[in-house]
Amino acid sequence: MSQKNILLIGASSGIGHDLAIKLLDQNHTVFCASRRLEKMRNLEVLGAKIFSVDVTDEEQVNRLVENMIEQVGHIDIVYANAGFAIAGPVEETSIEKVHSQFDTNVYGAARIARAVLPYMREKEQGRIIFTTSIAGRVSTSMNAWYSASKHALNGMVKALAQEVQGFGIHVSTIEPGCVQTEFDSIQLADMKTTTELEAYDSIVKKSHHFLQNAYNSGSTPESTVNNMLKAGFDNKPKLSYQTTLDSKLMFWVQKLIGEQTFGRLILKIIQRNPA
Ligand SMILES: NC(=O)c1ccc[n+]([C@@H]2O[C@H](COP(=O)([O-])OP(=O)(O)OC[C@H]3O[C@@H](n4cnc5c(N)ncnc54)[C@H](OP(=O)(O)O)[C@@H]3O)[C@@H](O)[C@H]2O)c1
């Protein structure tokens, strides 16, 4: 496998951190970014260049990309992996909070794409791999805005794929289900704090149980990392990769029975949980 110049944003924990270790192990040149520099020190020891970057800050993203170009000349593969989840009833979620969800998960990914595309177009090659989620196709109770952000990102990527194909650039989405990382603790904690209305008490508690159980039996990052490597290195990369057993199952069941029946089925399963 030839050595590639790779930019990985969202490298300080979970899926991105494990991916970085694999890429470094394969001797690629890996530029890693996220807000918490101290959580990437071990990657630096393994050979990564590490940068503290917040994807909600366009200047920081642009500077990171310029810096990488100055140092290594071109970028072969970009993993836009940064993301987090808010949770709670739509009625109780402020629009300000929705903005912050989109600012990272959607606009953050767009900032990264906009920063690297001029260099990839010039080189007439490159791959951008966005970590979306099966939540970009399927919505479950209390996950409305996280799902909305990943649906938006999925939608953007499908159009981008057509826009840049003629420049030799390929884009893919990575769509995990539940993966055991730092992700669920942020999401589940937020679900509990976002609700005050008694009317939602029962459905919030049941949804919380449902999701907690799903994460407890969730996948390790391994299958998702392997699919990210496929998207980066396969001769014929796919547009989308469902990377875990539960995401493959949800993808196919929703396709077969339709969104409305799928929604009813999910709600039935959620309702079986304790309130
Ligand atoms: N775990 C799951 O079940 C699951 C399922 C489907 C999709 N995903 C997606 O997978 C991706 C990785 O998540 P994970 O599960 O590995 O969770 P994680 O352990 O919480 O990692 C999230 C990564 O994103 C970075 N990040 C978050 N906000 C950022 C910002 N504003 N600027 C720069 N970096 C930021 C974090 O770094 P800092 O905090 O240091 O900035 C961290 O490196 C996310 O896009 C998530 O939506 C996860």
Descriptive overview:
This protein has helices at residues 14-25, 41-45, 58-72, 95-123, 144-164, 183-193, 201-216, 222-233, 245-257, 259-271; strands at 5-9, 29-34, 49-52, 77-80, 126-131, 169-175, 240-242. Helix 1 packs across helix 8 (222-233), helix 3 runs parallel beside helix 4 and helix 9 (245-257) packs across helix 10. It has ten helices and seven strands. A seven-stranded parallel β-sheet has the order 3-2-1-4-5-6-7, sandwiched between helices. The mean pLDDT is 97. The longest helix is centred in the middle third of the chain and has 29 residues, at 95-123. The chain is an alpha/beta fold and 275 residues long. The relative contact order is 0.13. Helix content is 53%, strand content 13%. The radius of gyration is 19 Å and the shape is globular. The chain binds NADP nicotinamide-adenine-dinucleotide phosphate. The site of NADP nicotinamide-adenine-dinucleotide phosphate (NAP) has 29 residues, from helix 1 and helix 4. This is SDR family oxidoreductase. Belongs to the short-chain dehydrogenases/reductases (SDR) family. Keywords: Oxidoreductase. It comes from Vibrio amylolyticus.
